[in-house]
Design a protein that fits this description.
The protein folds into two domains: 1-50; 54-129, no CATH class. Helix content is 29%, strand content 20%. It has one helix and six strands; from the N terminus they run αββββββ. A three-stranded antiparallel β-sheet has the order 1-5-6, with no helix packed on it. A three-stranded antiparallel β-sheet has the order 2-3-4, with no helix packed on it. The protein starts with 11 loop residues before the first helix and ends in a 5-residue tail after the last strand.
């Protein structure tokens, strides 16, 4: 990293160096803030999806990849009259079934679901992860 010496003694040369130094510092701070923001968002995105990687549904298909995997807010999970559960996604309720219920508990104590819409086909819920016991 470059070291900048700034003189605060009087004189025209010292003032212009101070202005140039301040401009350089502002540019460096903006660049650092942008880099931190980009790395932080990439890390959050990667870590949010990374635990789904390589997991398979009970039917053998990949849970993630092209699929939309995410935590499900509590208000979007409901118990049906027959004691099964459904998850609201993209304008409709999807049943949690043995075909999409993965036996691995979610690492953060929340319900997670992975959805997939094949070209020309209907939206499907391919994987559901329930919270584990404490």
């Amino acid at each position: 990293m470059e070291v900048l010496e700034v003189s605060f003694s009087g004189g025209r040369g010292a003032q212009s160096m101070n202005e140039a130094g301040q401009k350089w510092v502002r540019q460096q701070l903006r660049a650092a803030a942008l880099a931190i923001a980009l790395v932080g968002s990439a890390t959050a995105s990667a870590s949010g999806h990374s635990w789904y990687t390589g997991l398979k549904s009970p039917l053998g298909g990949a849970c993630c990849g092209d699929r939309d995997c995410a935590p499900v807010p509590p208000g979007l999970v409901r118990r049906e009259p027959d004691q099964t559960f459904s998850i609201w996604h993209a304008g409709g309720w999807y049943a949690v079934t043995p075909d999409n219920l993965v036996s691995l508990a979610s690492p953060d104590g929340r319900v997670h679901a992975c959805f997939w819409k094949p070209a020309g086909g209907p939206m499907r819920m391919v994987c559901v992860f329930l919270p584990g016991e404490d």
